[in-house]
Specification:
The structure holds two protein chains of two kinds. Chain A is α/β, with parallel strands linked by helices. Chain A contains 13 helices and eleven strands. Chain B has two domains: 69 residues; 311 residues. Classes of the chains: A alpha/beta, B mainly alpha. Chains A and B meet through α3, α4, α5 and α7 of A and α12, α13 and α14 of B.
């Protein structure tokens, strides 16, 4: 078994009296697609927001690691010493719950997409992908100062960034639309562009919040193939929230089922599919059970 | 023609109806504003005066104007104009005609008497403007026709117009003070160089500075004048206390203003929209109140007078032995300083434009625009929104500070009166009317708004029409408001709503204003 890329331990998120996520623990394996499923309001997006630094969890630890897995051994020391992260002997370990959102993306290399697409609609497709490479470009421009005087090293860095964007656009067949505003693209293309924009940040963990929402069955199937391709060829682990079970069951290596903020099942797709609690909580109950329940209330 | 005649009848009825409606609106608007007026009579009593003839004239103007607008063959006119502006020959002829006309008007102004002088001068100046516009346009169109950049006709024309406008604008700006000197004489030109040239350019610069904060980063700052004030007072106080020169204090004033920009930025980082607007507005007022009340430092309401004037590498613009005129062996004239100041502010404004254009193409500029489009997405992509906002505030404030120190050096006197909320509002209006994020739009809006209001002071000819008591300057704000309403009806996203992408793969296509977001405040 490979070392996990992400470990979530005893994660609890309370909004006042409402417990959105309650003592949730799971881990995501490196190079796997881990799906987070559950009925509406189960707390899936809250988990995402905690992982990506948009929320500060009430309790719990979220650790992310890349590079040499030996650094996992430092986890408890790091937690006790109150640091945000540790880079040692080619391994990097970060405690995401202690980091602000932009550092989670920049340092811990966690990228995410959103349930309702969040592109920069008034900027072109290419500009969207360049904004995603803000960090490296900012360094290349000497935090603006050197770029302002027109240093060649910056021009080269920008050209490299454009090439990278172009490569990704070629992969999703959007190169011809590179100079069109992102807001003008059809819905399916916007979804794909958002994923590619996240990939342009060179993530180790890609968090996708309902990427198949609003796609038709053939588009969903294509998305599934595409995500598998990302996992296999681009050295990225994927954490996925999805309602489209055909996609989840087809591509996931590992499924975690949430209901009311609690993990009710955890395992490979086949196991989860046949779990009685999952069927009851998520996929619904048998027809005759519904009939019995209806008879009890006098319908 | 015979076919059109029956169809034109309902058109006429419709046009008359529209014109009537416009006249009615004008009546409603102008009845309290124009028809009645409270004046102090000889015994200093307030009496109500009526001005029915003036009122009637204005209503009639509105009626006729709307009628003409409705009846004009718009399509044909557009076509004629388009062919006109594409032909270098026609433009050259127009330039020649306007030059001759300007010359005739100029001669008339030298020989005429009374109010006709002012009228002839105004004509001469307007015609000279036309000459420069046409001439530069003709050259630009000829050049682009001769050496076309692209072959696609639609884009070729757009490119042509773009190049023509840019070359024309820069050439005109460089030639402007000398042209005015030739037309209006050393005495008369001061007004045109100072009140129009310098004044407009200051606001162009302020508009471009605020454009970074409001237009690019999408943060509505209603207290921008505070940085203008910081720049002005920094220059005035440091120059008077330490005797430092303008050229040393200019960057210093910019840095101080940027510092205050960051200071304002910190508390408002979490605020958005209306809340941000209110707090920035309050910040502007705080600075003004400090300037009023810290009498020991700023001399309060009385202001600071005798602020040192800028020199040309140490040569002052005075009538003294070592002055500019004496050094260069020419006759002393006050206009020399105005022309010098004009070129200084032109340089500063162009510098602002240049830096902003460059910044837009750097990651920081893209981050500003991304921030305007979607802040959450920015954070998810690893952009430090705190720093990004602070740099926007700081750089915007820095340009405000430059403009402020120039303002103090030009006026020689500053007081808190110059830094009221009204100034902030005017600058925001310029940015909004110009089209948020568009540099050319902002410049055009500044010319219309500031040039227009200044021009209102020049319309003394109207006194001949409306009587001696008529004071055109009093209608400045009315026209200001009217211009804003008209632009907002005609172009709700500003004069130039389309956004130019900062980078492109194959071809640069403007992004329609419909996609560009306005920011969260």
């Amino acid at each position: 078994m490979t070392a996990p890329v992400l470990r979530v331990e005893h994660l609890t998120m309370r909004f006042g009296g409402l417990v959105a996520v309650n003592d949730l623990s799971f881990s995501a394996e490196r190079g796997h697609i881990t799906a987070l499923i559950g009925p509406n309001g189960a707390g899936k997006t809250t988990v995402f927001n905690c992982i990506t630094g948009f929320y500060k969890p009430t309790e719990g630890r979220i650790a992310l690691q890349y590079g040499d897995p030996a650094i996992w051994g430092d986890l408890d020391t790091l937690t006790e010493h109150g640091g945000r992260g540790r880079i040692h002997n080619g391994g990097s370990l970060f405690l995401l719950e202690r980091m602000p959102d932009h550092l989670v993306a920049q340092k811990a290399r966690v990228a995410r997409t959103f349930q309702n697409i969040r592109l920069f609609p008034g900027m072109t497709v290419l500009e969207n992908l360049l904004v995603a490479q803000h960090g490296p470009l900012m360094r290349a421009s000497g935090w603006t100062m050197l770029g302002l005087i027109g240093l060649r090293s910056y021009t080269q860095a920008e050209r490299a960034a454009i090439d990278k964007a172009r490569t990704w656009l070629d992969r999703i067949g959007l190169t011809d639309r590179a100079d069109d505003p992102a807001g003008e693209l059809p819905y399916g293309d916007q979804r794909r562009l958002e994923i590619v924009r996240a990939m342009c940040t060179d993530p180790v963990l890609l968090c996708l919040d309902e990427p198949a929402a609003g796609l038709n069955p053939s588009e969903s199937a294509e998305l599934g193939r595409y995500l598998k391709m990302l996992r296999d060829r681009h050295d990225v682990s994927i954490l996925l929230i999805e309602h489209d079970m055909s996609v989840v069951m087809e591509i996931s290596d590992h499924v975690i089922v949430l209901d009311h903020g609690v993990c009710i099942a955890d395992g490979d797709p086949a196991t989860v599919k046949n779990d009685q609690r999952v069927i009851a909580a998520y996929l619904g109950v048998e027809d005759d059970e519904v009939g019995r329940a209806e008879a009890e209330v006098g319908l | 023609m015979a076919d059109e005649a029956p169809a034109s009848r309902p058109d006429l009825v419709r046009a008359l109806r529209a014109a009537g409606f416009t006249a009615l609106v004008t009546v409603g608007l102008l009845l309290p504003l124009i028809a009645f007026r409270a004046v102090h009579d000889i015994r200093n009593e307030l009496v109500l005066e009526t001005r029915w003839p003036l009122f009637a004239v204005l209503v009639a103007v509105a009626f006729v104007g709307r009628l003409a607008w409705e009846l004009l063959p718009h399509d044909r006119l557009k076509l004629t104009l388009a062919t006109f502006f594409q032909s270098p020959l026609k433009l050259a002829i127009a330039a020649a005609v306007s030059w001759v006309a300007a010359f005739v008007a100029h001669l008339t102004s030298l020989t005429a008497f009374g109010p006709k002088v002012a009228l002839a001068r105004l004509f001469a100046i307007v015609l000279a403007f036309c000459f420069f516009g046409f001439a530069i346009g003709a050259v630009a169109v000829w050049v682009t026709n001769r050496y076309p950049m692209t072959t696609e006709p639609g884009r070729h024309r757009r490119h042509q117009i773009g190049v023509g406008l840019r070359a024309g604008a820069i050439g005109f700006l460089l030639a402007y003070p000398l042209m005015m000197l030739w037309l209006a004489g050393a005495q008369g030109a001061i007004k045109w160089v100072d009140n129009f040239g310098i004044q407009i350019l200051i606001y162009v610069m302020l508009g471009w500075g605020l454009n970074i904060v409001v237009g690019l980063a999408g943060l509505l700052d209603l207290g921008y004048v505070a940085f203008y004030a910081v720049g002005a007072y920094s220059y005035a106080l440091l120059a008077k206390t330490f005797g430092l020169s303008f050229w040393i204090l200019l960057p210093l004033a910019g840095i101080l203003a940027a510092f205050w920009g960051i200071l304002l930025g910190f508390p408002v980082l979490r605020l958005r929209g209306d809340y941000l607007a209110i707090v920035t507005l309050a910040f502007g007022e705080i600075i003004r109140l400090v300037l009023i009340n810290w009498v020991d430092l700023t001399n309060g309401y009385a202001g600071i007078s005798g602020v040192p004037r800028p020199t040309l590498f140490g040569i002052p613009f005075t009538a003294a032995e070592d002055g500019f005129a004496a050094r260069f062996g020419i006759e002393f004239a006050a206009i020399h300083r105005s022309i010098f100041l004009y070129y200084v502010i032109l340089l500063l404004a162009l510098l602002t434009a240049l830096i902003t254009i460059r910044l837009r193409r750097l990651p920081i500029g893209r981050a500003w625009e991304a921030l305007r489009e979607d802040e959450i997405a920015c954070r998810a992509l690893g952009i430090n929104t705190t720093n990004t906002k602070l740099t926007a505030f700081a750089i915007g404030a820095m340009f405000g500070g430059f403009a402020g120190s120039f303002f103090a050096a030009r006026q020689g006197f500053i007081s808190p009166e110059s830094f009221t909320f009204m100034e902030s509002a005017v600058i925001v209006a310029i940015v909004v009317l110009g089209g948020m994020g568009s540099q050319i739009g902002v410049a055009v809006a500044a010319i219309i708004m500031i040039g227009g209001t200044e021009l209102m002071r020049e319309l003394d000819i109207l006194k001949e029409i409306f009587g001696r008591d008529f004071d055109p300057t009093q209608y400045r704000m009315l026209l200001f408001g009217l211009a804003m309403v008209l632009i907002m009806i005609w172009k709700p996203r500003g004069l130039i709503a389309a956004r130019q992408p900062s980078v492109f793969l194959k071809e640069r296509k403007a992004v329609s204003g419909a996609h560009v977001r306005e920011g969260h405040g």
